[in-house]
Amino acid sequence: MSQSIGTRGQLAFLSLPAVAFTTAMIAFPFAYTVWFSLHEFSFGAKPKLNLGMNYIEMLQDGEFWNGLKITLVLYVLSLVLQLVLGTYVALLLHGSKKLSGIVRTLMISPFVLPPVVVGMMWLVVLDPSIGAANYLLQSVGLPRSDWLASPTWVIATVAMIDTWQWTPYVALIVLGGLQSLPPNVYEAAQIDGATRWKTFWRITLPLLMPTLVTAAILRSVDLLRFFDIIYITTQGGPGNASNTLNIYGFRKGFELFEIGYASALMITLSAIVLGAVMVLTQARKRVAW
């Protein structure tokens, strides 16, 4: 027993530098951002303490509320699409023995592509003049679309791009959950004559809920702070139609140099992400089996 305690103490001591470094890398930037958010500060000027006036200004800022709405709409739309399609792809991969390893690799490869590559690729595909997307629409008799240049369709289009990239990631997580389900439950359902739909709805889906909530937690962190694909494809446009909180904070901080206000926006966004993760974590505890 004493030897085991001594070994644990040595491991804790050896891991202390890594823990301290990681904590410093997270805690210091966060604390510094909080400090900035409590000051009126622009590049070239001395910080002036304003005791939360940035947050009061933010609550009175119509662009903040517009960015919050766009962030939440994009989050919900993308998350639902990725969970539904990811589950469907996982079921196909799990149930099909004919798909070769190469096919499976190709199906899950989009999420390993850099965001810059994905954004530039879809800019070409969705180009209103020469893009393949409008060519396909016209070939089946449908009208052309402006896609990313349309205030009406830009959010749905960005959600589609992100879904194309990250559905395979969700499918990979769900596939792992499917492979861990107890086979005896399915054997009993087959003996009872349950159809595929009833088996999925009453057995597979309830047993997969912890896995699906885990996938939702992982994707929520990225979706609520959506930045890269939007910045590459629309930069918040057309107008402010895709101006999420992250894009708005970037504009305030690095284009208008309002560092204090931008910091307040980022702290608020961090609180939203943390809140969503906490809610989903509690949900996962409730559906655990």
TrEMBL record:
Mode of membrane association: Multi-pass membrane protein
CDD domains: TM_PBP2
UniProt xrefs under InterPro entries: MetI-like, MetI-like_sf, Sugar_ABC_transporter
UniProt domain ABC transmembrane type-1: residue ranges: 68-278
Broad class of where this protein is predominantly found: membrane
Entry's transmembrane regions: 12-32, 72-93, 105-125, 153-178, 199-218, 259-280
Compartments it resides in: Cell membrane
Keyword tags: Membrane, Transmembrane, Transmembrane helix, Transport
PROSITE patterns: ABC_TM1 (PS50928)
Similarity comment: Belongs to the binding-protein-dependent transport system permease family.
Protein name in UniProt: Sugar ABC transporter permease
Organism name: Variovorax humicola
